[in-house]
Amino acid sequence: MAVMAAPENTPVWVNTSRCKACDICVDACPAGVLSMQQEPTSTLGAMISVIEPDACIGCQECELSCPDFAIYVAERKEFKFAKLTDSSKERQEAIRNNGYRIPTDYKEAN
Q: Where does the record place the 4Fe-4S ferredoxin-type domain (predicted)?
């Protein structure tokens, strides 16, 4: 099997045709990079979305936890990942507490 090349300047991406919107990857991400977004064409009414790609720390928890092999993280040699910050942790907590969706009124702490 060939290794999939990362899209240019992209730390994490989703193959939505394979994704069943189970939200396991959203729960696994410690940096609040992923969120479920409303998607009327999806069976469950939602689809995974990469909402903060610049916050990706490259831990691969999302990729490793995906039961459908639908999410991918770039190789460390291909991308310079962020460090885990307090604002990333707070965003992830807000996402978890809101049913794995970023709250509509969520504002980053600066």
A: 10-39, 47-76
Q: Which domains does the chain have, with CATH numbers?
A: 13-97 (3.30.70.20)
- Any idea what the Cα angle at residue 24 is, between residues 19 and 30, rounded to 5°? 120
Evaluate whether 68 touches 20 at the Cβ level (below 8 Å): yes
**pTM, to two decimals:** 0.85
d(Cα 92, Cα 30) in Å, to the nearest integer?
A: 6
Q: Are 43 and 21 in contact (CB under 8 A)?
A: yes
* Measured distance CA(27)–CA(77) in Å, rounded: 26
